[in-house]
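dumping this here before i forget
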Amino acid sequence: MALTFYTNPMSRGRIARWMLEEVGAPYETVVLDYATTMRAQSYLSINPMGKVPAIVHDGHVVTEGAAICAYLADAFPAAGLAPPLAERADYYRWLFFAAGPVEHAVTNRSLGVTPTGDQQRMAGYGSFDLMVDGLEKAVSANPYLAGAAFSAADVYAGSQVAWGVMFGSLPKRPAFEGYLGRILARPAYTRAGEIDDALIAQAA
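structure:
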């Protein structure tokens, strides 16, 4: 089945690239430019938001990083990146905690938006500190977010933690650094980074 990956190497597409490398299935990469091809009608017909990443797998379009990770884990079960159905509570919980509260709290903070006490009831993450404390507990409870085994939840949430610690949007807590030491040593992470870094160098 055909698998096409739409991305830019300086984007959240790096998360999907890591997941694709973990899956190990062959795929075609289409690199898009923010100012031109990402806004072209040919791509807007795939993702009307004009954002990356996106994949098209056997004619089916999937956008949004967390959805792509979850989809690929199910589409390629031999890779072992999703727990058995009866054991997916933590897997789903933390995958979508990263896509919701973590993403929103970090974005709002970078935009200078701090919810008041009353507004925290409306915000899914409550407060930035509350989100960070919850994330710290998640990466400390087990070797990986879904338990003893690495999963797609670690690809997505782990990427959020890695970027946050690297760029200062998350604090450098020992629990985060220990977790990153476990997940960033994976060969697929290294391969994915090398591919995207090479694409950046080619465009320079």
